[in-house]
Amino acid sequence: MSKSSIYGLTLEKLTVWLMEHGHKKFRAQQVWDWLYRKRVTSFSEMTNVNKECLQLLEEHFVIHTLKQHVKQESADGTVKFLFKLQDGNLIETVLMRHKYGLSVCVTTQVGCNIGCSFCASGLLKKSRDLSSGEIVEQIMNVQHHLDEAGQDERVSHIVVMGIGEPFDNFDNLIDFLEIMKDQKGLAIGARHITVSTSGLSDKIYEFADLKMQVNLAISLHAPNNELRSRIMKINRAIPIEKLMQAIDYYIEKTNRRITLEYILLRDVNDQRETAQELADLIGDRRRLTYVNLIPYNPVDEHSQYQRSEKESVLAFYDTLKKNGINCVIRQEHGTDIDAACGQLRSKQIKQAQGK
Ligand code: SF4
């Protein structure tokens, strides 16, 4: 049986596990420090941890289960990693450089079942959830890549927006977030972490109740059910009214701002009237709502969608602004590499299949 990654344990779980195996609480703290502060890549480097404890850890865990398969670097500093999991599946992780720091976009599932009609990732159905360790490892691999460059750079922001629906892998997602936030470890501020969901309303309520201070983004992409159901299959099961109720609960419970993601597709959802409809839908929620307008990256598999004209993007933005809606047009990263989410992975899989 393959061993699991030690990165899958929160500090609390590691402490309980070590104590159940006869070790003192402080050992967990030491191991944690080696993993996340000194960032070693083997147990044998944990020089202040006694032999028995190291042996026990070696017997049950490994540090790394992911292998770097492909790495693409863009002229703007974006780096796309394709990692191979122990079972041979491939996942994508992206490092992006911003003025405010370095952010990493992580994947939470192998494939995705949500079936958004514009998405390169959704073409490959979900085969399984990632473990919490596999999600943490993506961040650690990127951090090791930065450590090796010797520039003393740290991953400062995380976006859970890669392949998969994070709320469909809820428990592992929550452990991952706890590990990232841990003050004795990477200590990435909750406000620097954003989780993006396609709108699984039940999980939005659960997430709100946890009061984690982590940012929430909703992939909305359309202001009415007819259009949204065409773009996102999930809307047939969870229509906009139900989603907006969950959003209202989240805002009321957390008093935190919510981001609405909106991919602009030419002549599909990018008209001025649609912008007005979106502004009307947001209505009184505008104080705690932020719209992120995303220019679409065309993918071969979805030739029915094209990128919006620049004028349409600006007109859409303008209409929202005139209605007092906070919004921004998302800056693009890695346009000279396989920029669309899931594009690198689907390309590699096709190559492997000889397509
Ligand atoms: S956009 Fe996200 S939720 Fe939708 S199919 Fe793609 S990976 Fe899944």
Number of helices: 12
Q: Which oligomeric state applies?
A: single chain
Give the integer mean of the pLDDT values: 92
Tell me the overall shape: globular
Read across the widest sheet, the strand sequence of neighbours is: 3-4-5-6-9-10-11-12-13-14
Largest sheet: 10 strands, mixed
Unreliable spans are none
Q: Which percent range describes the beta-strand content?
A: 15-25%
Structural class: alpha/beta
Helix content: 25-40%
Secondary structure layout:
Elements: E1 4-5, H1 11-20, H2 25-37, H3 51-60, E2 61-62, E3 67-73, E4 79-84, E5 90-98, E6 101-105, E7 109-110, E8 128-129, H4 132-149, E9 155-160, H5 170-181, E10 193-197, H6 201-210, E11 215-219, H7 225-231, H8 234-237, H9 240-254, E12 258-264, H10 272-282, E13 289-295, H11 310-322, E14 326-329, H12 343-352
Parallel strand pairs: 1-2, 6-9, 9-10, 10-11, 11-12, 12-13, 13-14
Antiparallel strand pairs: 3-4, 4-5, 5-6, 7-8
Helix pairs in contact: 1-2, 4-5, 6-9, 10-11
The chain binds iron/sulfur cluster (SF4).
